[in-house]
Predict the structure.
Amino acid sequence: MDAPFSATGGLKLLSGNLGRSVIKVSSVPDDRHVIEAPARVFDSQAALQKAFTAGELERDVVCVVRWQGPQANGMPELHKLTPPLSVLQGKGFRVALVTDGRMSGASGKIPAAIHVSPEAAAGGPLAKVRDGDLIRLDAVAGTLAVLLPEDEWAARETATLPEAQRIADGRGLGRELFAGMRRNALTAEEGACSWL
C-alpha cells in the first residue's frame, strides 16, 4: 500500500459533448493520455480493418466506431480493433478509439473511450460525428469532445443506423430471438438491461 502501482487506479470516466464513456488507462503510456486528432468514422470493426489494410489510416487519427451499442447490435466484443491501432501507434502516430461498443480489457496500450452513452442508435452524439472532425480525448482532465463551435455542433444532423446494417446486425447467432431486448435496452452505463 505504501508503493502503489498507480496513484489513481486504472479506469477513468470521460464526459463531454460526445457523451459519457470509460477508458482503461492502466496500460496506456503517459504520453498517450491526451489525444487530439481528426476523426475517421466507421460503422463496423470490419470497415476499420479494411481501411487499415488499404493504408488509409497512416496518420494521427481518432477512429470512431459507432452502431456497436446494446440497442444497435447487442454490443459485441471489439477486440479486433486493437491490433491495427497498435501497429499505427507503434509507427509513432497518435491514435485513439472512440466507440459506443465494448472491449473486455483488450484495448491494451491504445487510448480507447468505450461504452459511449448514449449510443449512436439511440440518437447519441456519435451519430453526429463526421470524418475530419477534430476530437480530443483527454484522460487527464476526464473529457471527450468534438472541437466544433457549440452552435455548429447543436445544428449538426444526427445520422441514423442504416437499414441494411440494422437488418444484418439482427440476424445470425440467435440474434433474431433478442430483437425485443435490443429495442428496449438501457444505456451501457445503466448495464444495458432490457427487463427494467
The helical segments are 45-53, 82-90, 150-155, 163-169, 179-184. The chain is about 20% helix and 25% strand. The mean pLDDT is 86.
